[in-house]
Amino acid sequence: LQVLAVYGLRGLVEGKAHFLQSIPLALANLAWLLKDPVYPVEFPELRRHLQALIEHPRLVDAGRTAGEEAPLVVHIGSFSYRKGLPTDPYGHGGGFVFDCRAIHNPGRYEQYRKQTGLDPEVKAYLQQYTQMETFLREVFSLVDRAVDVYLDRDFEHLSVHFGCTGGQHRSVYAAERLARHLREKYGIRVEV
């Protein structure tokens, strides 16, 4: 309940998009708690008020529109180190460049050479035979922290780029995975 109060203050009163986006998750947790009979004692009055919170139109609507109101756009790209580092078209110089060359390259094998990180065979290879999942967990952790701060401070642009030798397999896969992660977690606009 304390967390929901903070979301309400920072989201509904101060208009912080990140907190607005968190309201549906908090409401879902409350709904789950009400359905799960884990408490040995009944709290009918508390239950009635919590149910009213879950169904309150302003809270339901706040979470629904939060993604549309968030000013932040995360720009995600992949590139080839052979062609140089990407430039920052937004002028603030902020963001991340992650080097995927330490991940084993499926492009070394004939059956993957003409494919990209979007093809199911390449995805399966990267998931099963490389350290890509560990790498991405660490990337998600770093980028999530930046997104939280950017949302809280109403920043408009965050750039994240993944590079590898050819810009075709590892970097493409990593870029798509991060885009999916951010869309699912934050509901913000992500451009790949």
Which structural traits does this protein have?
192 residues, alpha/beta, 2 domains, four-stranded parallel β-sheet, elongated
User: Could you spell the SSE succession in H and E letters?
Assistant: HHHHEEHHEHE
How many domains is the backbone divided into?
2
Strand line-up in the sheet with most strands: 2-3-1-4
User: How far do the termini sit from each other?
Assistant: 37 Å
Count of alpha and pi helical runs: 7
Q: What would the average pLDDT be, to the nearest integer?
A: 85
Q: Which outline best applies?
A: elongated
Kindly summarize this structure in a few lines.
The protein is built from seven helices and four strands. By secondary structure, the chain is an alpha/beta fold. The mean pLDDT is 85.
Description:
The chain contains seven helices and four strands. It is of the alpha/beta class. A four-stranded parallel beta sheet has the order 2-3-1-4, with helices on one face. The longest helix is centred in the C-terminal third of the chain and has 21 residues, at 132-152. It starts with a helix and ends with a strand. The mean pLDDT is 85.
SSE diagram, text form:
Blueprint: H1 2-13, H2 17-35, H3 44-55, H4 57-69, E1 73-80, E2 96-99, H5 120-129, H6 132-152, E3 157-164, H7 170-186, E4 189-191
Parallel strand pairs: 1-3, 1-4, 2-3
Helix pairs in contact: 1-2, 2-3, 2-4, 6-7
